[in-house]
Amino acid sequence: MNGTLTMLLPLVILLAVMYFLLIRPQKKREKEINAMRRGIQVGDEIITIGGICGKIVKTKEESLVIQVGADKVKFEIMRWAVSKVVEESKRPAAKAKEEVEEIEETEEVKPAKPKRMKKAAPAQEETIEAEATEEVGETEESAEATEEK
User: Fold this and answer.
1) Residue ranges of region Disordered (predicted)?
2) What domain range includes position 91?
3) What tens digit of pLDDT does each residue of 89-109 get?
């Protein structure tokens, strides 16, 4: 009986140490991250796990719409893809939710259509082609001049 206890005691101690050093801190970190993701509101600046920096424009149950770059491109990401909040918005959370709901009610959803490129006017095409042929002619003349020397 005494020999069995001495054999199991190091194993039990090892499991307890593993729990307090690895498992417990990981669960604590996970709770903090989930609280941060639940607390995200419109106006917060975030960084995603992919490294994309953007500003929250709209929040949904499981996803967020963020605005990115100078072109103000908007796209939807999942809440779990948020790595950290860089700058929190100045508004209180309750007021922000009310404003988002008002915006959603007044906003009409338009189907996104790709933009079409405009065709160049025929006169512009001719001048572009003429300029290109002039440049080719100039390079040929300079090549002939170097050969004659």
Assistant:
1) 89-149
2) 41-107
3) 776 655 545 554 555 555 555
